[in-house]
Amino acid sequence: MRKKTALLLGGSGLVGGLCLDYLLNDSYYTQVKVLVRRPLSVEHPKLIQHQVDFDKLKDQHSKIKANDVYCCLGTTIKKAGSQKAFRKVDFGYPKEIAVLSHANGAEQFMLISALGANPNSSIFYNRIKGEVEQAIAQCGFQGFYIFRPSLLLGERQERRLSEEFGQKIFQWFSFGFMGWLKKYKPIEGKAVAFAMLQMAKEKRRGKQIFESSHIQSIYDQR
Ligand SMILES: NC(=O)c1ccc[n+]([C@@H]2O[C@H](COP(=O)([O-])OP(=O)(O)OC[C@H]3O[C@@H](n4cnc5c(N)ncnc54)[C@H](OP(=O)(O)O)[C@@H]3O)[C@@H](O)[C@H]2O)c1
User: Fold this and answer.
1) Is 58 a known active-site residue?
2) 125 catalytically annotated
3) What is the domain count for the chain?
């Protein structure tokens, strides 16, 4: 079997951490690289950690090399401190990593975007997500997979009160997410991480968009 490498961004986050588990424990990849700001406490024979300065990605382009790239990066406007700082993390870094990894021969790029992503949206968050999808689509990957989850469920180390409140509300009314409302149903981070790996293995060509209900059905069929 050909040796395959994965490069993961956002491995310290909710979906990224779950994605790292899947990537390390599946035989599909022989090597898993992570780009991190701070070292992860995970050790594994397949794992290579690169601690990088995300503002100087070009200087470290040789580390941004793999067959498949998994981008689980993201922040919130509150955490980033401003819309500009949010855009840097959710648009600037993913786009730069896409350009550099493609130049280094990457074939597939898996991006976590979000429900409602649309470059023409009047909602800032949805617009940035739409813009990053659009920018990466122009890089020319053999396969570009966009995952648009609804509200993410899962254990976080940090407390996000608005998300916790949203999770409770959605869980109480989860029976109501039927028909066209299905794509709004909150989804477990592990379902997104699982779907990313499964779809990468299928090696589809061109741009593929997975709305939240589709991600859920991939996970349900496992
Ligand atoms: N939360 C939701 O309900 C929801 C819904 C739909 C879509 N999404 C999207 O799904 C994706 C994954 O979400 P998540 O909740 O799993 O994310 P998360 O837990 O907040 O993790 C975000 C990751 O991005 C990294 N990151 C943040 N700021 C950074 C910076 N300035 N420089 C370098 N790395 C940085 C974090 O690294 P550090 O540990 O170093 O900070 C972490 O690894 C995001 O793009 C998010 O927008 C989220």
Assistant:
1) no
2) yes
3) 1
